[in-house]
């Protein structure tokens, strides 16, 4: 049976919606499990900060190279096979990241890990677009909410295991078992095809897809800035104790997760355009408050507003990609996913470069202006 025939005789339903949620959880859980391992890998391999930073680029390169390939493979073999393959790559890489100590081995393991993450992330977003469209309901925020929830559970769970004295390898084996259990739950009901539209295997994003991708890039740029610079800013500029400097990102992550888990109802009630406009303005106001408020307490409120504002912008943009006809979704979805990843990976470097030439406050202020541009873009987009 051809790919097209499969699509015309099979309509995704509740089981496919469930599998999509579990797959998003897998993606968030998998990437977050690595974060607590970073200090262990650094110490085991005897790396300085500069070398570690260069090695971590291998993860990003693996992800970005895998994303467009995932779209091509999903079109040919279906979302199910590609997502399963990506998850197995993650499961193979995590124990290596917990044990290898040579730089070449770390490079290989990080590249493999990044490729697995990029494959899963791109494929589940493609499936989410198809499943949401078939349902006729707003579902994308809830899907992405499971990614955020998986991230919180993964980071907290692995940190707890390590805190209780479990070895890095032992913690990763627990993660792998949980990932495989989740995969067994999701895989039977993942889509056996990859796209409902035909087109070239690869194309440079253009038109409305490039516009949407640019908006995704800015939002992920802000997320990368919050992830890597909020603690530095609070400690350096607001005098908060280093042990509590992570509260800024915690506030951001919490409101983003809650916002996404409740986002489908919000999008249904307000409409996609208002979510983009109000979300962009809320995020910009939050980052402005976090940057220029005189106290760290108000700064935490600002980071919470930033997370709330950003929470549903990207899900709405993915829904918009599923509605456009300029590019086939098998190419368009990986394209905006890649642009988003480029934003979150380049965000810390861009902020650092601007801060070096001026100040961290100026860099964050410029990021707030870009988020206002996202709000304006939401008005122009008219989704």
Automatic annotation (TrEMBL):
Topological category with respect to the lipid bilayer: Multi-pass membrane protein
Subcellular location: Membrane
Regions that span the bilayer: 22-41, 53-75, 82-100, 106-131, 143-163, 169-188, 200-222, 242-263, 275-294, 300-321, 333-354, 360-381
Main subcellular location of this protein, as a coarse class: membrane
InterPro entries: MFS, MFS_dom, MFS_trans_sf, MFS_Transporter
Assigned GO CC terms: membrane
Cell membrane recorded as keyword: no
Record's keyword annotation contains Cell inner membrane: no
One example GO MF annotation: transmembrane transporter activity
CDD domains: MFS_MosC_like (cd17393)
Every Major facilitator superfamily (MFS) profile domain range: 208-383
The entry's keywords: Membrane, Transmembrane, Transmembrane helix
Gene3D superfamilies, per database record: MFS general substrate transporter like domains
Top-level division of the source organism's lineage: Bacteria
The protein, known as: Fucose permease
UniProt lineage: Bacteria, Pseudomonadati, Pseudomonadota, Gammaproteobacteria, Pseudomonadales
